[in-house]
Write the structure tokens for this entry.
Amino acid sequence: MALLSYEKQAFADAFNEDGLLVCARGMGLERIFVTFLKLYCDPGQLVYVINTNEEEQAYFIEQLELQDVKPLPKSITSDFSVAEREQLYLNGGVLFITSRILVMDLLTKKVPSQLVSGIIIFKAHKIMESHQEAFILRLYRMQNQTGFVKAFSDNPTAFIKGLCYVERVLKALYVKKLFLWPRFHADVKDLMEKHTIDVVEMEIEMTPAMASCQTALLDIISSCVREMKKSHPSLDADEDITIETALSQNFDRTLRRHLDPIWHQLSIKTKNLVSDLRMVREILGNLTQYDAINFYQFIKSIRSSERTFISSDSWLYLDAADSLFTAAKQRVYSSNKKTKAKPGVAAEADLWDDEEETTDSPAEECPKWKYLKCGGNQMLKRIKDRMNEMNNAANRRCKTTKNTKSNELTLTQMITHDSSGDEDDVKTKKIKIGLVDEALTVFHPLYGNSDPYSILRTLSELQPTYVILYDPEISVVRQLEIFKACNPGKPLRVYFLLYSNSSEEQRYLLTVQKEKQAFEYLIKEKAALVIRDDQDDKMEDDDEETSLSFRDARAPVEHKIIVDVREFRSKLPSVLHKKNITIEPATIEIGDYILTPEICVERKSLSDLIGSLNNGRLYNQCQAMCRHYRKPVLLIEFDKNKPFSLLQGKYNVSTEMITHDIMGKLTLLTLHFNRVRLIWSQDAYKTATIFRELKENREQPNLKDALSLEKSEEEAMLLGGMYEHVAKDLILKMPGINTKNAYTILNKVSNVADLATKSKEDLGKILHSDIHGEKLYTFMNHHETSQGIGVNATRQKVEKKRLQLKPRRKKNEKLF
């Protein structure tokens, strides 16, 4: 796989210096990445590749196999044991590894850090979201100062959020250089102009009914955006929340990013507007994707599902909604009689309920597909004739070749042979697929495919001459440009189908514009970027963290926290490590974090808290902590980007009922386990500060003691509040005893045998209730039951059974 000229320059820049390489989407980042993997596939090198999924790993290994690269990279998952992973580390080469496993091995010193040549990060724009990759790089730089760090990303729009986001990403990556390769780069532009694709743009007019549906949907979106800005004036000044940007693909994510911190303060009207915007945008996208019948059924199902709980301010009450429903039905039904529609949902319901209307013509056909079948017949005929001419010429050359074997079959011949002959005989033959006799048409979906490199595989395998791009997608356009530049001698014509004056066209132009603006922003940031030369050697705190005091800086104390391995999916272990706290991973059965020999913390996010309260798991966890630790703590941690409140809606009655249910269960939990302390934390940074304060002037935990759950009798009685928990549980199971009078029994009765000898009057006095005393006395001394229930009855049955099982001594038999 030969690199293009600009790809060679990008490869040289990233190879010579550590840095972050950001290129436009579809501009061949995977080709540069595969070249780096090929370079380091050497047993003398040890390179880790992180932040890749299974589909991406399979594609990279497949490309290296095509180039006969050995040894191939290996994927390390949880299926490998610790010993197997250590052996793979010593063997060297390129290793695809999950972030969680690499963090564990770095903390436990299983990784030979001094032998690591470097780390390659794919999709580096996600490093601030997952935080595990940043944790890995911090541990790596602490143990190895000479290895390289290479980061790659093809999503420039992800770097324009937040203040100084680019600088923070470079700081987390421990690199100083930023390499930018947009589509308008001079080298890229010159190369693409030399290998221009023959593009035929076909602007197809929408039908009048489709145009009416689009106009109605745009009016609804405009109305929802205006109402939302009226409810929250702060959104009016935001350039990302406009009617034009509402057509972009990432509008929902942008809107939720602005509203999530104050979501619990929003009125039910504003929340309904957010939901309406999401629904209307989905309808607008399906207008150009669905045919008339499926689109009609889709919006009909929406209306029928929302009719029962429709609110007075719903978009279904707008006049534009009536126009949408009328136009959608006209695309399916065509009738001579005209229905006089009245404004409002009631009249619209009559229009929709009229299902017996006769049709004089079939449903309206999709304009693009209609053009391909009718108006595009000449285009398709020219494509077919041209492909047949090329195949016939190639077949004639193949027939005159002397080295052509007799058992080589074309695809059509193979199919004919397969249908006429025996299936088993065909399977045993080695069949080589030759050229196709006739034009071959392949339909490839752009959306809904789990493989991100399916288009590249299709282009590489089929080597198409004609491509009809049914849906506009910027990444596919770039991939076709790269394919043409890599195959300059092969003709390629692309037919670009696009609805003129449509939301589809506007969405495509917005994508191109946002990418261009993102690169312009990154270019300005790169010019003003200030990175310290010694940042690789210093472990500085982020802006969110609280810096250490001068006293702590002069006399640092080494703190240690034992962390359960399952907690490394969260952000908290990374933040604790930034706080200069030693992290010791282990598989502990009780709690998530052990701060001291006495303090054990069970961490719960809001969703995990609700699930644990509902299924009863939190009760068992608190019970285990109370039995083994003197100071059990329940930590409830929220997300910094979400509201710091259990309330999800101020005026939502059902949500308030759920919230009251959660608070009621938490109250019962604290009443039952009175030694459990609750800590409410806003985010992971606040939690790290709280942990540090709790550990001040306290003993450090011991891993051996944390893994051992066995306690001495004195420790168990002390942790249980001077009572052994087994005896306490036994007493609470007896009738007449509850949590109020159980401690009276435990204080005044020495053991169960002593309890069985008490009279009914004594038990009534101890329990301060004759009724409870009678229940307990009946349970302890009842003999006249069919099953012999009671302590004395059980004791007699055991004694009788013991006497029956005792062997008899024979006459004249000696005892010894």
